[in-house]
């Protein structure tokens, strides 16, 4: 078998956003590279006949960023966004399947963010920012561009494109609110419109409201506020009239625990339809009848139907099931899913399964040796059931141990490890297994897949029980003779980076650590990160919570920097607005002050995720080199 290289990891392509045509015979999806080599990520819209997947073809031959494929109601037209005319500014395009012609439908100077072809054959709803005015252009020329926070903030607005005339109108119905999502009623009735008071990630998600908009009359009706971070709108009919649902955070906790909320339009009654479930909804998908719900269910995924009595399980799927699309009747679905040793591809079939693979976007991985991946189930110190994954070195079995063990903690913390292929540009299990490491991927409390209480339990308590959950798993792997207790490493990105920094301040058991874009001071993050209120819920307090010491000081890694003796590799994107670079600089200065061996690596032009090809290659190679230096004999 051929060996895995860093180039094989980052040079592939992945399918995104599959969309089934209403007739159920055609499918489109976006094919995107895993890394970027230039200033823009060049993506492609592909078309596939469900019964002849080998005849797949590109919708265009352009070099562009193509996205958001949507079908017309009669399956004759495919609408999508492309920036082929002006890179970085997307416009709406239409492909006529009859003759293969592609037409540019908009020339909106601010670009189009999203779109929704309506039941009316000549109308498309758009989401787009306001076009720049002459005053804006003059200020830009004169460099009179001082930003007054709160003034002239950009807003996405609902606009209507008339395909007969090419004219775009902007209904004046939602004031100055920021529009984030649209969904038309299945019978061609009004649009459900989700808005926020601001596009600001710190403030906007807590200010959501629902509205109804009639595209034929241009009138709107307010339905009132929604729960925090509402998304994934879906309509369905019932005996008591139309219902409108969405996925949102379960109150009052701001940082975790999603639920499906059901609004009965006639009575305006709102219900949480997933209370008490030991699963977490991730998507709500509209059909002509009861909607489908995707649940993160431990290491795997459950697909359910939202019946009047509650969710009814329809099928179970190994690993993840993402980007669900259905025909109007819900008889067929398309989604992204994979296996332990095969990255996600587009699969289609009935909701009850089985699903068959339609795409094969990573053939270059065929024949590449990967480590054996197996689920782990164990109990925390307080008896809570936990799970995770163990990946063994390539060609090895558990009886060949003990091996050097690297624990990689997931981000979020409201994320999870699922039983899928663990091969990514960031510190990932299969990349390290190639170098002879066993890798532990824990799902401690605070994560997704085990219900609301499991997720919400870390609010104000990060680094406490979730830390002992991780240690318990490590001790189990050592007791089984798989891990060498004298050759332990720990790594993570984002919240996983926090846990890695926290670990080395609590114990000297780890011989090396990697902190990727990690949280070092919760008060500082609440003050400067783009999700400040979310971070404040995790940290338990803010710097303006009166005279300190504050609760977040006791659970911030920087407070324990004087205890760190473990060599630490720190990686961070220079333009990260989620966890700003200052967090890593803070840790670097503390470690320098205390004389701890470490490296700080900053990636220019990068945000919270590393996108450029050379930078991804550097992360992969530097990660292995760092752990090889400290863990290999």
From TrEMBL:
The keyword Protease applies. Residues 307-326 are annotated as: Disordered. Residues 310-326 have a biased composition (Polar residues). Residues 429-631 form the Peptidase S9 prolyl oligopeptidase catalytic domain. Pfam families: PD40, Peptidase_S9. Keywords: Aminopeptidase, Hydrolase, Protease, Serine protease. One of its GO terms (biological process) is proteolysis. GO terms for molecular function: aminopeptidase activity; serine-type endopeptidase activity. This is Dipeptidyl aminopeptidase/acylaminoacyl peptidase.
């Amino acid at each position: 078998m051929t060996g895995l290289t860093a180039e094989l990891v980052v040079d592939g392509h992945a399918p995104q956003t599959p969309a089934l045509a209403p007739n159920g015979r055609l499918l489109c999806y976006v094919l995107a590279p895993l890394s970027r080599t230039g200033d823009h990520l060049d993506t492609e819209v592909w078309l596939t006949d469900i019964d002849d997947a080998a005849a797949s073809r590109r919708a265009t031959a352009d070099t562009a960023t193509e996205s958001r494929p949507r079908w017309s109601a009669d399956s004759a037209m495919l609408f999508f966004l492309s920036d082929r005319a002006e890179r970085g500014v997307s416009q709406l395009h239409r492909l006529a399947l009859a003759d293969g012609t592609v037409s540019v439908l908009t020339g909106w100077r601010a670009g189009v963010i999203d779109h929704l072809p309506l039941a009316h054959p000549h109308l498309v709803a758009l989401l787009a920012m306001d076009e720049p005015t002459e005053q804006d252009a003059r200020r830009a020329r004169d460099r009179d561009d001082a930003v007054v926070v709160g003034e002239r903030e950009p807003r996405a607005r609902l606009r209507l494109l008339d395909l007969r005339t090419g004219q775009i109108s902007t209904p004046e119905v939602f004031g100055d609110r920021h529009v984030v999502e649209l969904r038309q009623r299945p019978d061609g009735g009004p649009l459900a419109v989700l808005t926020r008071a601001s596009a600001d990630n710190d403030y906007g998600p807590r200010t959501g409201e629902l509205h109804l908009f009639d595209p034929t009359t241009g009138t709107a009706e307010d339905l009132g506020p929604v729960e925090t971070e509402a998304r994934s709108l879906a309509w369905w009919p019932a005996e008591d009239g139309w219902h409108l649902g969405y996925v949102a955070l379960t109150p009052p906790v701001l940082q975790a625990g999603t639920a499906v909320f059901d609004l009965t339009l006639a009575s305006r009654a709102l219900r949480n339809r997933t209370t008490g479930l030991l699963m977490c909804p991730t998507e709500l998908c509209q059909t002509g009848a009861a909607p489908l719900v995707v649940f993160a269910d431990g290491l795997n995924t459950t697909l359910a139907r939202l019946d009047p009595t509650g969710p009814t399980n329809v099928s179970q799927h190994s690993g993840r099931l993402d980007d669900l699309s259905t025909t109007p009747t819900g008889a067929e679905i398309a989604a992204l899913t994979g296996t332990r040793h095969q990255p996600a591809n587009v699969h289609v079939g009935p909701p009850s399964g089985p699903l068959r693979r339609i795409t094969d976007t990573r053939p270059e991985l065929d024949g590449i040796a990967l480590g054996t991946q197996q689920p782990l189930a164990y109990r925390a110190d307080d008896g809570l059931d936990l799970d995770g994954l163990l990946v063994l070195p390539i060609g090895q079995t558990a009886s060949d141990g003990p091996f050097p063990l690297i624990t990689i903690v997931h981000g979020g913390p409201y994320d999870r490890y699922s039983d899928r292929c663990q091969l990514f540009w960031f510190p990932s299990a299969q990349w390290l297994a190639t170098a002879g490491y066993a890798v532990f991927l824990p799902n401690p409390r605070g994560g997704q897949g085990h219900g609301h209480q499991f997720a919400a339990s870390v609010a104000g308590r990060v680094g406490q029980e979730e830390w002992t959950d991780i240690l318990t798993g490590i001790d189990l792997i050592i007791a089984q003779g798989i891990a060498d207790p004298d050759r332990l490493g720990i790594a993570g990105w984002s919240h996983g980076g926090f846990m890695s920094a926290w670990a080395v301040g609590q114990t000297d058991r780890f011989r090396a650590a990697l902190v990727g874009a990690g949280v070092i001071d919760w008060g500082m993050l609440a003050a400067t990160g783009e999700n400040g209120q979310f971070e404040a819920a995790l940290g338990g307090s803010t710097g303006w919570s009166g005279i300190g010491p504050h609760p977040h000081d006791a659970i911030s890694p920087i407070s324990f920097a004087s205890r760190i003796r473990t060599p630490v590799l720190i990686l961070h994107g220079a333009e990260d607005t989620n966890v700003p670079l200052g967090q890593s600089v803070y840790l670097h200065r503390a470690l320098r002050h205390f004389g701890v061996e470490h490296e700080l690596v900053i990636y220019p032009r990068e945000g919270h995720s590393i996108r450029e090809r050379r930078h991804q290659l550097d992360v992969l190679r530097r990660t292995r080199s760092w752990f090889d230096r400290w863990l290999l004999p």
